[in-house]
TrEMBL record:
Family: Belongs to the Nudix hydrolase family.
Record-linked Gene3D superfamilies: Aldolase class I, Nucleoside Triphosphate Pyrophosphohydrolase
Organism, as annotated: Sulfurirhabdus autotrophica
NCBIfam families membership: mutt, PRK08999.1
Any GO BP annotation: DNA repair
Location of the Nudix hydrolase domain: 7-134
Species lineage: Bacteria, Pseudomonadati, Pseudomonadota, Betaproteobacteria, Nitrosomonadales
Keyword Transmembrane applies: no
Residues where 8-oxo-dGTP binds: R27, E38, F39, P40, G41, N123
Names of required cofactors: Mg(2+)
Name of protein: 8-oxo-dGTP diphosphatase
């Protein structure tokens, strides 16, 4: 019987500018997978926290001092030489300019224009996650009216919103098809992703980028639908684990705070939110009662970003 391999904790830095540009480094000679490109980092030493290891490794490898870093996603990956648990942190602020202290090459890249190869196998899902915007809008024509919402949507898209979910339970099938087509058209005009809530056929019909599953659909589906970008709504740990097992691209998890529509419903609170999503492999958007100003708080507790039904459509005037 083969001996069970020890799981090695590794701190990994996704060093990223506000515009989404991030750093990849090439592994130097003498290390496993020499010549492969990766996000910089290294093993967590005895007595270190993951964050402490991250700061130390980036100082040693690149000569910069991490000043702001947020827990993000966690991947467990089996390499021939090691079984690793990769704790990815997004590093958003640092002091100094990166310098290759181990004589490794490095490159600043965008997720849609990665032109270095080969990449370490574990990095594929990370690049996909990096392509997801940090602010996620959910349509609200039920309160704003169809035309009123489309006006607000275009304003938000002009201001930089890059992902929208079409979710309008009150519309008839024909009304929803027409509305979804309008949202997709605006999304394409401004380079934003559009997903349709629960309806795979409608998403394909209107040319959406993917589908967002309800929590009930999530627990019933056996395999990941083959329709591009796939997300799901989650309300507990079982649903989050199911989404991870299906290899979904993202989830919405909440409610974190009291909402206008259900002010008396139980909420998670930030501490519970952060504890439950810890160690998940896919990006998690915090949902429920949030404002744009809550984004940094969400990052602090491990969220990829925030999802909003109302605040994102506030009239800028």
């Amino acid at each position: 019987m083969s001996e069970k391999r020890k799981l090695v904790d590794v701190a990994v830095a996704v060093i990223v500018y506000e515009d989404g540009k991030f750093l990849l480094a090439q592994r130097p000679e003498g290390k496993p997978y020499a010549g492969y490109w990766e996000f910089p980092g290294g093993k967590v030493e005895l007595g270190e926290s993951v964050y402490e290891a991250l700061v130390r490794e980036i100082q040693e490898e690149l000569g910069i001092q991490v000043t702001h870093a947020y827990p993000w996603i966690t991947q467990i990956f089996s390499y021939p030489h090691a079984l690793v648990k990769l704790h990815f942190y997004r590093v958003t602020q640092w002091q100094g300019e990166p310098y290759p202290h181990e004589n490794q090459a490095f490159s600043w890249l965008y997720s849609d224009a990665v032109n270095v190869a080969p990449l370490l196998p574990a990095n594929g899902p990370v690049l996909q996650a990096l392509s997801l915007p940090v602010v996620y809008g959910i349509s609200n024509a039920a309160e704003l009216g169809k035309e009123g919402f489309l006006v607000r949507l275009e304003s938000a898209l002009k201001s930089g919103l890059k992902i929208v979910q079409v979710r309008e339970k009150q519309m008839t099938a024909d009304e929803l098809a027409s509305f979804a087509a309008d949202v997709v058209s605006l999304g394409k005009t401004y380079g934003a992703k559009v997903v349709v809530n629960s309806d795979v056929a409608l998403a394909a019909k209107v040319g959406a980028d993917g589908v967002h599953l309800t929590s009930q659909q999530l627990m019933q589906v056996e395999v990941r639908p083959d329709v591009g970008l796939i997300g799901a709504s989650c309300h507990n740990q079982e649903e989050l684990e199911r989404a991870a097992a299906l290899n979904l691209d993202y989830v919405l998890f909440g409610p974190v705070l009291p909402t206008l529509s259900h002010p008396d419903n139980p909420v998670l609170g930030w501490a519970t939110f952060g504890e439950v999503i810890k160690d998940l492999p896919m990006p998690v958007y915090a949902l429920g009662g949030l404002e744009p100003a809550d984004l940094v708080t969400a990052w602090h507790y491990g969220a990829h970003g925030i999802a909003m039904l109302r605040s994102v459509w506030k009239d800028s005037d």
